[in-house]
Amino acid sequence: MPSAIEIDLLRNLAVILRPFEYATTEISGEKYVTMSKIIPVVNCLTTHLDNLKSNNPAIESVRKGLSAAMHKRFGMAELNSKIAMSTILDPRFKNIHFKNPAGCAKAIAKLKKLCIEEISSESEEEKAEATGPESFDFWKTHKELAMVRAWYMDSSEDDQRLEHHRNPPQFLDLEELFKMSGVEYFKMDLDTYAQDGELARLKKKRGYSYEDEIVCSKECLQDYEGKLRSFFTEHLHTDEEIRFVLEGSGYFDVRDRSDQWIRVEVVPGDLIIIPRGIYHRFTLDTHNFIRAKRLFVGEPVWTPHNRPADQMECRKLYLERMRKGFEE
After folding, report:
1. 48 annotated to bind ligand
2. Where does this protein reside within or beyond the cell (predicted)?
3. Is residue 265 part of a domain?
Protein backbone atom coordinates (compact mmCIF):
# COMPACT_ATOMS: atom_id res chain seq x y z
CA MET A 1 0.00 0.00 0.00
CA PRO A 2 1.47 3.43 -1.01
CA SER A 3 2.51 5.75 1.77
CA ALA A 4 1.08 9.23 2.31
CA ILE A 5 4.21 10.75 0.73
CA GLU A 6 3.87 8.52 -2.34
CA ILE A 7 0.17 9.37 -2.68
CA ASP A 8 1.04 13.07 -2.54
CA LEU A 9 3.68 12.54 -5.23
CA LEU A 10 1.16 10.77 -7.45
CA ARG A 11 -1.34 13.60 -7.02
CA ASN A 12 1.26 16.18 -7.99
CA LEU A 13 2.35 14.02 -10.92
CA ALA A 14 -1.26 13.83 -12.12
CA VAL A 15 -1.37 17.64 -12.14
CA ILE A 16 1.77 17.75 -14.29
CA LEU A 17 0.36 15.18 -16.73
CA ARG A 18 -3.15 16.67 -16.93
CA PRO A 19 -2.32 19.02 -19.88
CA PHE A 20 -0.97 16.04 -21.85
CA GLU A 21 -4.14 14.08 -21.13
CA TYR A 22 -6.25 16.95 -22.39
CA ALA A 23 -4.11 17.43 -25.51
CA THR A 24 -4.27 13.71 -26.28
CA THR A 25 -8.06 13.67 -25.87
CA GLU A 26 -8.41 16.82 -27.98
CA ILE A 27 -6.37 15.39 -30.85
CA SER A 28 -7.81 11.87 -30.61
CA GLY A 29 -11.36 13.21 -30.73
CA GLU A 30 -10.97 14.32 -34.35
CA LYS A 31 -11.18 12.13 -37.43
CA TYR A 32 -8.03 13.81 -38.67
CA VAL A 33 -5.77 16.40 -37.09
CA THR A 34 -5.14 19.54 -39.12
CA MET A 35 -1.58 20.82 -39.35
CA SER A 36 -2.72 24.22 -38.08
CA LYS A 37 -3.26 22.76 -34.59
CA ILE A 38 0.36 21.80 -34.01
CA ILE A 39 1.72 25.20 -32.94
CA PRO A 40 -1.30 26.13 -30.74
CA VAL A 41 -1.32 22.73 -28.96
CA VAL A 42 2.44 22.85 -28.40
CA ASN A 43 2.22 26.42 -27.11
CA CYS A 44 -0.59 25.58 -24.68
CA LEU A 45 1.28 22.51 -23.42
CA THR A 46 4.57 24.33 -22.87
CA THR A 47 2.83 27.28 -21.21
CA HIS A 48 1.03 24.96 -18.77
CA LEU A 49 4.30 23.19 -18.01
CA ASP A 50 6.06 26.50 -17.36
CA ASN A 51 3.31 27.49 -14.92
CA LEU A 52 3.40 24.21 -12.96
CA LYS A 53 6.75 24.62 -11.23
CA SER A 54 6.97 22.56 -8.05
CA ASN A 55 8.98 22.76 -4.84
CA ASN A 56 9.16 18.98 -4.81
CA PRO A 57 12.48 17.95 -6.44
CA ALA A 58 11.06 14.72 -7.91
CA ILE A 59 8.05 16.43 -9.48
CA GLU A 60 10.18 19.34 -10.72
CA SER A 61 12.57 16.86 -12.33
CA VAL A 62 9.66 15.25 -14.21
CA ARG A 63 8.37 18.68 -15.29
CA LYS A 64 11.77 19.75 -16.59
CA GLY A 65 12.19 16.44 -18.41
CA LEU A 66 8.83 16.84 -20.14
CA SER A 67 9.61 20.45 -21.02
CA ALA A 68 12.98 19.46 -22.52
CA ALA A 69 11.35 16.67 -24.52
CA MET A 70 8.73 19.08 -25.88
CA HIS A 71 11.44 21.52 -26.95
CA LYS A 72 13.46 18.74 -28.57
CA ARG A 73 10.55 17.43 -30.62
CA PHE A 74 8.60 20.61 -31.35
CA GLY A 75 11.01 23.49 -30.74
CA MET A 76 11.49 24.13 -34.47
CA ALA A 77 7.81 23.78 -35.44
CA GLU A 78 7.37 27.54 -35.98
CA LEU A 79 10.26 27.56 -38.46
CA ASN A 80 8.57 24.90 -40.60
CA SER A 81 6.97 27.01 -43.32
CA LYS A 82 4.08 24.62 -44.02
CA ILE A 83 3.12 24.33 -40.35
CA ALA A 84 3.51 28.08 -39.80
CA MET A 85 1.51 29.07 -42.89
CA SER A 86 -1.33 26.64 -42.12
CA THR A 87 -1.57 28.07 -38.59
CA ILE A 88 -1.70 31.68 -39.83
CA LEU A 89 -4.38 30.77 -42.38
CA ASP A 90 -6.55 29.10 -39.73
CA PRO A 91 -8.98 31.83 -38.57
CA ARG A 92 -9.07 30.30 -35.10
CA PHE A 93 -5.36 30.78 -34.48
CA LYS A 94 -3.77 33.23 -36.96
CA ASN A 95 -0.48 34.37 -35.36
CA ILE A 96 -1.48 34.53 -31.68
CA HIS A 97 0.41 31.37 -30.62
CA PHE A 98 3.75 32.21 -32.24
CA LYS A 99 6.70 32.69 -29.90
CA ASN A 100 9.33 32.99 -32.64
CA PRO A 101 8.87 36.35 -34.44
CA ALA A 102 11.26 35.36 -37.23
CA GLY A 103 9.28 32.21 -38.01
CA CYS A 104 5.98 34.09 -38.03
CA ALA A 105 7.32 36.91 -40.22
CA LYS A 106 8.88 34.43 -42.66
CA ALA A 107 5.59 32.56 -43.02
CA ILE A 108 3.62 35.78 -43.59
CA ALA A 109 6.15 36.90 -46.20
CA LYS A 110 5.89 33.56 -48.00
CA LEU A 111 2.10 33.77 -48.01
CA LYS A 112 2.28 37.29 -49.47
CA LYS A 113 4.70 36.06 -52.11
CA LEU A 114 2.36 33.22 -53.07
CA CYS A 115 -0.54 35.68 -53.31
CA ILE A 116 1.49 38.01 -55.51
CA GLU A 117 2.50 35.15 -57.80
CA GLU A 118 -1.11 34.00 -58.06
CA ILE A 119 -2.40 37.49 -58.80
CA SER A 120 0.37 38.30 -61.25
CA SER A 121 0.14 35.12 -63.29
CA GLU A 122 -1.99 35.58 -66.38
CA SER A 123 -3.98 32.71 -67.79
CA GLU A 124 -3.74 31.87 -71.46
CA GLU A 125 -7.28 33.17 -71.92
CA GLU A 126 -6.32 36.55 -70.46
CA LYS A 127 -3.33 36.75 -72.78
CA ALA A 128 -5.53 35.97 -75.76
CA GLU A 129 -7.94 38.73 -74.78
CA ALA A 130 -5.18 41.32 -74.34
CA THR A 131 -4.99 43.85 -77.14
CA GLY A 132 -1.49 45.13 -76.48
CA PRO A 133 0.32 47.43 -74.06
CA GLU A 134 -2.71 49.75 -73.84
CA SER A 135 -4.96 46.94 -72.56
CA PHE A 136 -7.17 47.88 -69.63
CA ASP A 137 -6.18 46.07 -66.43
CA PHE A 138 -9.00 46.26 -63.91
CA TRP A 139 -6.86 44.66 -61.14
CA LYS A 140 -3.85 46.98 -61.64
CA THR A 141 -4.41 48.79 -58.33
CA HIS A 142 -4.83 45.55 -56.42
CA LYS A 143 -1.65 44.08 -57.88
CA GLU A 144 0.35 47.12 -56.91
CA LEU A 145 -1.05 47.16 -53.38
CA ALA A 146 -0.22 43.47 -53.06
CA MET A 147 3.42 44.22 -53.87
CA VAL A 148 3.94 47.14 -51.52
CA ARG A 149 1.87 48.12 -48.49
CA ALA A 150 2.00 51.87 -48.00
CA TRP A 151 -0.65 54.08 -46.46
CA TYR A 152 -1.28 57.47 -44.88
CA MET A 153 -1.07 57.35 -41.10
CA ASP A 154 -3.57 58.54 -38.54
CA SER A 155 -2.57 60.98 -35.80
CA SER A 156 -3.01 58.52 -32.93
CA GLU A 157 -0.38 58.37 -30.18
CA ASP A 158 -1.02 54.65 -29.62
CA ASP A 159 1.73 52.01 -29.79
CA GLN A 160 4.05 52.99 -32.67
CA ARG A 161 4.31 49.31 -33.68
CA LEU A 162 0.65 49.19 -34.76
CA GLU A 163 -0.38 49.88 -38.36
CA HIS A 164 -2.03 53.28 -37.68
CA HIS A 165 -4.44 53.43 -40.62
CA ARG A 166 -6.71 56.37 -41.26
CA ASN A 167 -10.45 55.78 -41.23
CA PRO A 168 -11.15 54.80 -43.93
CA PRO A 169 -7.67 53.47 -44.87
CA GLN A 170 -5.86 55.44 -47.57
CA PHE A 171 -3.34 53.31 -49.48
CA LEU A 172 -0.73 54.35 -52.03
CA ASP A 173 0.62 52.34 -54.95
CA LEU A 174 4.28 52.34 -56.04
CA GLU A 175 3.86 55.25 -58.44
CA GLU A 176 2.09 57.40 -55.85
CA LEU A 177 4.65 56.54 -53.17
CA PHE A 178 7.51 57.68 -55.41
CA LYS A 179 5.64 60.78 -56.61
CA MET A 180 4.81 61.91 -53.06
CA SER A 181 8.14 61.10 -51.37
CA GLY A 182 10.82 59.90 -53.79
CA VAL A 183 10.97 56.57 -51.95
CA GLU A 184 11.89 53.65 -54.23
CA TYR A 185 10.85 50.04 -53.65
CA PHE A 186 12.00 46.76 -55.19
CA LYS A 187 10.77 43.20 -54.60
CA MET A 188 13.37 40.42 -54.74
CA ASP A 189 13.13 36.65 -54.48
CA LEU A 190 15.10 35.61 -51.39
CA ASP A 191 15.66 32.16 -52.87
CA THR A 192 17.18 33.33 -56.16
CA TYR A 193 18.43 36.95 -55.87
CA ALA A 194 22.05 35.87 -55.35
CA GLN A 195 22.01 33.57 -58.39
CA ASP A 196 19.96 35.68 -60.79
CA GLY A 197 22.13 38.75 -60.18
CA GLU A 198 19.19 41.07 -59.48
CA LEU A 199 20.76 42.61 -56.38
CA ALA A 200 24.20 42.77 -58.01
CA ARG A 201 22.77 44.71 -60.96
CA LEU A 202 21.08 47.20 -58.65
CA LYS A 203 24.29 47.66 -56.62
CA LYS A 204 26.28 48.30 -59.80
CA LYS A 205 23.71 50.72 -61.19
CA ARG A 206 23.51 52.75 -57.95
CA GLY A 207 27.20 52.48 -57.05
CA TYR A 208 26.67 50.62 -53.77
CA SER A 209 30.12 49.37 -52.74
CA TYR A 210 29.56 48.57 -49.06
CA GLU A 211 27.16 46.20 -47.34
CA ASP A 212 26.62 44.67 -43.91
CA GLU A 213 23.75 43.21 -41.90
CA ILE A 214 21.81 44.63 -38.99
CA VAL A 215 19.53 42.72 -36.61
CA CYS A 216 17.02 44.63 -34.51
CA SER A 217 15.69 42.60 -31.59
CA LYS A 218 15.81 42.64 -27.81
CA GLU A 219 18.35 39.82 -27.87
CA CYS A 220 20.72 41.24 -30.47
CA LEU A 221 20.61 45.03 -30.11
CA GLN A 222 22.50 46.74 -27.31
CA ASP A 223 20.47 49.45 -25.57
CA TYR A 224 17.39 48.12 -27.38
CA GLU A 225 14.89 50.66 -26.01
CA GLY A 226 17.26 53.58 -26.57
CA LYS A 227 17.99 52.52 -30.14
CA LEU A 228 14.28 52.20 -30.94
CA ARG A 229 13.64 55.71 -29.58
CA SER A 230 16.48 57.00 -31.75
CA PHE A 231 15.20 55.20 -34.87
CA PHE A 232 11.68 56.62 -34.29
CA THR A 233 12.87 60.19 -33.81
CA GLU A 234 12.19 62.15 -37.01
CA HIS A 235 15.49 62.71 -38.81
CA LEU A 236 17.27 62.76 -42.16
CA HIS A 237 20.56 61.42 -43.55
CA THR A 238 23.11 62.97 -45.90
CA ASP A 239 23.07 59.78 -48.01
CA GLU A 240 20.47 57.30 -49.21
CA GLU A 241 19.28 54.77 -46.65
CA ILE A 242 19.00 51.34 -48.29
CA ARG A 243 17.56 48.31 -46.53
CA PHE A 244 17.06 44.83 -48.00
CA VAL A 245 14.94 42.80 -45.57
CA LEU A 246 15.99 39.17 -45.05
CA GLU A 247 13.86 38.25 -42.03
CA GLY A 248 11.25 39.90 -39.86
CA SER A 249 9.33 43.08 -40.59
CA GLY A 250 8.91 46.73 -39.67
CA TYR A 251 7.77 50.16 -40.83
CA PHE A 252 9.50 53.13 -42.45
CA ASP A 253 7.55 56.38 -42.01
CA VAL A 254 8.31 59.16 -44.52
CA ARG A 255 6.99 62.69 -44.98
CA ASP A 256 5.11 63.45 -48.19
CA ARG A 257 4.92 66.73 -50.14
CA SER A 258 2.49 68.23 -47.63
CA ASP A 259 4.42 66.96 -44.60
CA GLN A 260 1.99 64.13 -43.84
CA TRP A 261 3.23 60.74 -42.66
CA ILE A 262 3.22 57.79 -45.06
CA ARG A 263 3.87 54.39 -43.48
CA VAL A 264 5.64 51.76 -45.62
CA GLU A 265 5.66 48.16 -44.43
CA VAL A 266 8.80 46.12 -45.19
CA VAL A 267 8.90 42.30 -45.08
CA PRO A 268 11.41 39.68 -46.33
CA GLY A 269 12.32 40.29 -49.97
CA ASP A 270 11.60 44.02 -49.82
CA LEU A 271 14.37 46.46 -50.75
CA ILE A 272 13.57 50.08 -49.92
CA ILE A 273 15.59 53.19 -50.77
CA ILE A 274 14.96 56.22 -48.58
CA PRO A 275 16.30 59.32 -50.39
CA ARG A 276 18.85 61.54 -48.72
CA GLY A 277 17.39 64.69 -47.21
CA ILE A 278 13.90 63.27 -46.53
CA TYR A 279 12.51 63.43 -43.00
CA HIS A 280 11.71 59.90 -41.90
CA ARG A 281 11.78 57.40 -39.03
CA PHE A 282 11.71 53.63 -38.46
CA THR A 283 10.01 51.27 -36.04
CA LEU A 284 9.63 47.55 -35.59
CA ASP A 285 6.13 46.11 -35.73
CA THR A 286 4.57 43.91 -33.04
CA HIS A 287 6.89 41.01 -33.90
CA ASN A 288 9.85 43.04 -32.56
CA PHE A 289 12.37 41.58 -35.00
CA ILE A 290 14.01 42.43 -38.31
CA ARG A 291 17.21 41.36 -40.08
CA ALA A 292 18.30 43.35 -43.11
CA LYS A 293 21.23 44.14 -45.38
CA ARG A 294 22.44 47.74 -45.34
CA LEU A 295 23.93 49.05 -48.58
CA PHE A 296 26.01 52.20 -48.99
CA VAL A 297 28.09 54.16 -51.47
CA GLY A 298 31.68 54.31 -50.19
CA GLU A 299 32.40 54.41 -46.47
CA PRO A 300 29.17 54.13 -44.46
CA VAL A 301 27.88 57.16 -42.56
CA TRP A 302 24.85 56.39 -40.41
CA THR A 303 24.65 59.74 -38.59
CA PRO A 304 21.02 60.89 -38.11
CA HIS A 305 20.28 64.62 -38.19
CA ASN A 306 17.13 65.24 -36.18
CA ARG A 307 14.49 67.67 -37.37
CA PRO A 308 14.79 70.61 -37.84
CA ALA A 309 17.63 70.31 -40.33
CA ASP A 310 16.24 72.47 -43.14
CA GLN A 311 19.49 74.38 -43.66
CA MET A 312 21.46 71.25 -44.55
CA GLU A 313 22.52 70.97 -48.19
CA CYS A 314 21.04 67.47 -48.57
CA ARG A 315 17.65 68.80 -47.44
CA LYS A 316 17.75 71.64 -49.98
CA LEU A 317 18.68 69.19 -52.75
CA TYR A 318 15.83 66.88 -51.74
CA LEU A 319 13.30 69.72 -51.89
CA GLU A 320 14.63 70.67 -55.33
CA ARG A 321 14.20 67.07 -56.51
CA MET A 322 10.67 67.10 -55.11
CA ARG A 323 9.90 70.31 -57.04
CA LYS A 324 11.03 68.59 -60.24
CA GLY A 325 8.91 65.51 -59.55
CA PHE A 326 11.96 63.45 -58.48
CA GLU A 327 13.11 63.26 -62.09
CA GLU A 328 16.88 62.71 -62.30
Report:
1. no
2. Cell membrane; Cytoplasm; Nucleus
3. yes
